[in-house]
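Tutorial handout. Part one gives the primary structure; part two gives the three-dimensional structure as tokens.
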Amino acid sequence: MNNNALHSVEADIREQVAAYCESNNVPGYVAGVHHAGEQIVVAHGTGNVATGAPMCDNTGFLFGSVTKVLTTTLVMRQVDRGLLDLDTPVVKYLPEFALTAPGAANKILVRHLISHTNGIDADLFFPDAKGRDALKIYVDGLASNCGALFEPGEQLSYSNGGMIVAGRLLEAVTGMPFPDLLKRDIYAPVGMKDSCTSAEEAILRSTAVGHFLDPETMAAEPTGMFMLPDTWGPAGGTPIGTVADLLAFGRTHLAGGVSPSGTRVLSAGATALMQQASYDMATPNVPPMGLGWVRYPFGDTTVLAMSGASPGGVSILCVVPEIDLVFTAFGNTSAAIMLHDHILQRLLSEHFGVRIPTLVTGGEQDVDLTPYVGTYRSNQLRIDVSIVDGRLEERTTYEPADESQGRVFSQFAGGMTSAPPQRYVPIRPGLFAPAGYPLETFDGYLRLLLVSYHDVRDGQARFHNGGGRLTRRV
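Part two.
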């Protein structure tokens, strides 16, 4: 693709963004594309409706769970240095690491933390702490609050807890607080000059905030909580930066671990290992997992990706080695995830000639629904599955462990702590689609809306998987 072609990409994205933001009440959006040595950035709308500050090319935003790829890169740097071994138990480096189930933590290897195969049941564990000891407080709290969903390596479940333990592990082996290590070993060598880890730093420059739609007026209102507690830093709670910064990070992974300035950040072998499949659930709603990266198949093309929710915002970073492409974006309402998906699919299909096949074709009508009925739980989350009018119906309820965690979760979710019931239609045994969606919805990133059930024994599924997260039958 030449310079003129990239300009046509810019015009196309600008048009998509303006139309989508207008019709879906998304105040602001910023996106960037890098290809073959050239890059473009498109910014639209407002970064904060309370102040009227515009969304600019260099406006910062919370990375959210995109941070998990940065945290994994930090782990792999310590593997390169010989300070960590992927196949060594975490407790060798972090003896205080424990879960409520005796001995469960002892089986978890370093590799399990960054491949989301650790089984730590802590996805909604929100201890509210700040400062240098935040990650220590988090790990100490696991021992009395959080158990195990499954044996390490047995299943795949998107794991905030695993990444936070990895952050504390990094502190233990390097002797540096996680934010300082992130600045020294990622921000500086990659060239992420506008990135930070605190609101105090972010306020000194242009920074967007998240928004939630008022259910009565549908107007976008600014979030009441800018970021999650420091305890969630390595999972995505605190890092902030710009589109240009994430493009530079993505380019580093495109270039075998060498940053745009020529600094080696990660060995070629470690960079390649992150991109290889480490676990595959073999179901379309859960793409194969690398280390840090999720491997989304778009036909024969693999998109390495991670999206990141923050209070009232959502980011995305995609790296496509086969076509030398990096795409990253942020929108300041949660509805922007659909715009991320639209732009990514259009980039691939219309500008790079990637054929995107239909992921889900038709449904089966005579699937026995009874193996899936029941109650499933994970940390502070309950999902009740029943049969209503011949379809599966899910009711999801958040059950906070204490007032502090309930407050953090409620603010993160914009006050919503339960979802309306959702009905599902069968695609095949063990795989269901939310009713009312056209099947092409699931061809791209939104395949995560599909729900699957796993490990059927004696006529009952043991696990429910929604959004890449497992809950276990009780």
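Part three, for discussion. The longest strand covers residues 38-48. The chain has twelve helices and 19 strands.
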